[in-house]
Structures
1.
Amino acid sequence: MDFELSTEQKAWQKIVHDFAEKELRPKAREVDEKEEFNWDAARKGGPIGLLGMSIPEEFGGSNVDMISNAIAFEELGWGCGSTALAFTAHNGLGTAPISLYGSSGLKQTWLPLVSSGKNKLGALALTEPGAGSDIQGGVVTKAEKVGNEWVINGAKMWCTNAGIAEYIIALVRTDENKNSKSLSMILIPTDAKGVKIGPAEKKMGLRGSPAHGVTFDNVHVPLDNLVGDVGKGLQQTLATLDAGRISIGAISIGLARAAMEIATNYARERKAFGQAISDFQAIQFKLANMETEIELARTYLYKAAWLKDLGRPYNKEAAIAKLFATEMAERVCYEAIQIHGGYGYSREYEVERMYRDARLMTIGEGTSEIQRLVISRHVLARE
Ligand SMILES: Cc1cc2nc3c(=O)[nH]c(=O)nc-3n(C[C@H](O)[C@H](O)[C@H](O)COP(=O)(O)OP(=O)(O)OC[C@H]3O[C@@H](n4cnc5c(N)ncnc54)[C@H](O)[C@@H]3O)c2cc1C
């Protein structure tokens, strides 16, 4: 495997880094404190392709390869965890299922609208109050065919972007059986009658990325709003999550890299016992461990992305990449705070926010336990 990025990928990295440096990092503290989404970032990110990474060009997208997707999310995570999470919930969850499985009518109606940056975004609602990891057995939101419409009833939880979305793709039960063939994806416009979006959850971190509870009370949508096939919802969801896990891993690497850069500068400047703390081997070894972990996480993440780009199976690799990168980001952000001493615990210092932001990454789009489950299944299936 050749790890040299192509000329196009390097150019893309620079575009996204410059964007993150100008539009995300300077506002990252403010969006966290005010618990507000960075709308400017969406307005300006749309035209450079950041809202269309999973959308074909004919529908207004930038349709980047998976390594370029990973490159972008590392830079966005470096700039602002909140905005990066909202962008990945939009690209990987809110638009990818339509690009992959949607009818041409759905693609034409929704994808150009949400990729431009002029409108609201997309969202995907899998999780429910009683079901997160176990969507196959736990989803109870129902969609019934009545005439030429779906009638949807139920409740979803933790839907990132719901309050700033044009539509929500909901995973719903389309027949009574609780097996792998009874789930389907249906696109529900957020302004449809009967859609109620609760207030944004009060979160520990990523506070500029709104996540909401949503209820569907006799919501009617056309049969054509089915995304993909009836009964294929679980399969489509698992495929969507494989790619999403690469993006969450990439955001984690970006958060870790940002925290490490800040900690490195601090270590050079902070004096103790008459010398810079970077002169102490204990601090040098922390930096060495942080660098090692970030490099390993990125290298492996690119492997998972590369396999996807080749059209080869990458379920295990995506799980390993997410597991390692997200747990790595927690360790690196923890050490970044440690290097700052008491100041690291202050909200005046960015590493405090990065530590809070990193914590979600081991939970969203499949917890670390679920990643270990996926990996161990591959191990145990070996001859
Ligand atoms: C900020 C944020 C944003 C989110 N955004 C979205 C979104 O946009 N769309 C969406 O659909 N969801 C979203 N989620 C939900 C997220 O995907 C779920 O929280 C996650 O999948 C875990 O589900 P749960 O919270 O129900 O935990 P549970 O599934 O109840 O798990 C609780 C604990 O049990 C463990 N566990 C469960 N099953 C097993 C098992 N078989 N073996 C071992 N351990 C197990 C879990 O790992 C965890 O530690 C978001 C969550 C947060 C916090």
2.
Amino acid sequence: MNLFAGQIFALFLLFVVFTPLERTFALHKDKKVFRKGFATDVLHILFNRFIVDLAGFLVIVTLAVSMTLYSSQLLRDLVASQPIWLQFIEAVATANIFGYFAHRLTHSVPLLWRFHAIHHSSENLDWLAAARTHPIDQIFSRAMIFVPLFLLGFTQEVFGAYLIVAVLHGVFLHSNVRFKFKFLRGIVATPHYHHWHHSNHPEAANKNFAGQFPILDLLFGTYYFPEEKTPHIYGVNERIPRGYLGQLKYPFSAGTQSGS
Ligand SMILES: [Zn+2]
Ligand SMILES: [Zn+2]
């Protein structure tokens, strides 16, 4: 199966799983399946993969190889010699720590925010909105996570397993479902937790940066999880183009604003 057919198949599978789930357990019941921005997000899911895989691979390999000299071969051998399940747990923990700070940087450094603002521009949050991410934003966060994993010596299987879990969990975090999973509060990121990250309510600004483990937000003072309230305004204050190509070009245009 070629890559493009693979993306169409993934899109179809996700649509078939998440559409009935969201229709049955909707958080925002007025949100339509083919809502505003649907076509734009489909184009993100279909085309970003090629840009991110190719350019991301080049960036990550270049950075990792040039930094190998400063890392320890002994440590790499030690990490790679562990059982896969143990490496996986360690890789997820490492990825979360680096991912947390990378995500914070995308909100605080104006240049990075221009790219990350595309992901935050969705006004209707659902499973498909997870795909709306500027390729350079994705490459930045992948590099911030994968270069340390590479330098620490985690094996290829661990990288693959982490990527699959992170992508599927990431899609679920954006879905329009009303389960709050209160028993997981502060332990594992849930849709309720990540919806607050996307909300455009002032009290939730710059909160909930963790990918999988909100304990990082608890440790660094960025945790926000009002159990009974539900966010109802999403998006950003700046005007982001609605079309796919416009969103790709947006960070490069003059006059974009910073911060969220
Ligand atoms: Zn963000
Ligand atoms: Zn998100």
